């Protein structure tokens, strides 16, 4: 008997089904813009929220009692958890999963013991991957939970912590390569500061750049050719994190010579914490050829912190997919559900309802976005709005054929710029509503 023996395998049944354990919109083999939904979306289940979250929050104790988990930090329990995780993912029919090293295996009393624990659990992960065909979207190292990282990992004021972080990432990269991971993620949860009075910002950022270049060098050494991803977030748990948003990350990557090896993993809840929309962050990353993957979730704007809720808003998913389609897809990335059930959703079946809803929301968002693109009205409007750049003085400027002096001469002769045209924001919002 499995942990989810009373749950059927989740299948597509169409929009009219009343079966809560079925997809209404996610049809993996349905073709959209010449590619299957499965290949567009590349859904991934996260290990940490789905199989490790216990419902605790800053104000309350755990509420989620998982019958398959004995609550211990033993290697045996960790291996059992692997079997349960793959049973869940197999029934959900997702192609990928993602993990931190400390999600899947307990930390030991020493670095060597932690490595040994991880190797034992990775044996089980490898077996389950081979059995099911489910693949690793990305791996990463948890360098924010243990007290040693209180001042940061690669940005710590303590050189030994930098060295420990390097050893931990080295091992996590080796494990990711062994499991066929297609990406490796860096999320700098404590790579920032709480107070500038005690912080040498330049030195810390230089150390972060040095650390990531070491990671690239080691990837080359072991033959790991997956994509490196940085995940922007402005705050939480630190007051300010150096990877605060897409623009800050891209500026950092350029400054430290990392643009050719790194892309961004954009998360909705992190975008809103940075004062942006998911659409903005995706578009900025895509415009700089840095769009790599997404963490699919949403936050509660009335709470204003990182609530990591499952996405159900069709405007959010349609806007996200409009930008992802605009830039040709996610490449080796995917739609990774960095989301957790609410602490009040205490039954195991709630894990299925949450993921089914999120997958359906993104599938429907994909179809909406494709329909908007096929109809063409939005694209035509934007093209017309910028048409002055397609010929005449606009085309000459973009070609680099002018400077301030020549442009001054042009306007002195012309006398005044041509009249502006309406941005028609309300019309366009109504236009989008037609598809949703």
Automatic annotation (TrEMBL):
Homotetramer. One of its GO terms (cellular component) is cytoplasm. HAMAP family: Xylose_isom_A (MF_00455). It is an enzyme of class 5 (isomerase). GO terms for molecular function: magnesium ion binding; xylose isomerase activity. The active site is at residues 100, 103. InterPro entries: Xyl_isomerase-like_sf, Xylose_isom_bac, Xylose_isomerase. It comes from Mariniblastus fucicola. It catalyses: alpha-D-xylose = alpha-D-xylulofuranose. Binds 2 magnesium ions per subunit. It comes from the Bacteria. Mg(2+) 1 binds at residues 231, 267, 295, 338. Its cofactor is Mg(2+). Mg(2+) 2 binds at residues 267, 270, 306, 308. Belongs to the xylose isomerase family. It is found in: Cytoplasm. This is Xylose isomerase. Its main location: cytoplasm. Its EC number is 5.3.1.5.
